[in-house]
Prior knowledge:
mainly alpha; 1 helix
Amino acid sequence: MRERLGELExxxxxxxxxxxxxxxxxxxxxxxxxxxxxxxxxxxxxxxxGKELTHYKQLLQQSTEVSxxxxxxxxxx
Length: 77
């Protein structure tokens, strides 16, 4: 009988340990999911900024070409 009570107490203690460990794992999982979502938002922002940068580079190049053509146009008869 005492042996059974000892086993029961051990199992109860083990269940408590596993519950605590499970709680820590769930917290860590949530934190990692939050970090991943943040990284996804950052990546989306970087992609959008890259598109904008490419667009402005193209505008600058076009503007430079137009200005250069205008300058040369004044010298060519």
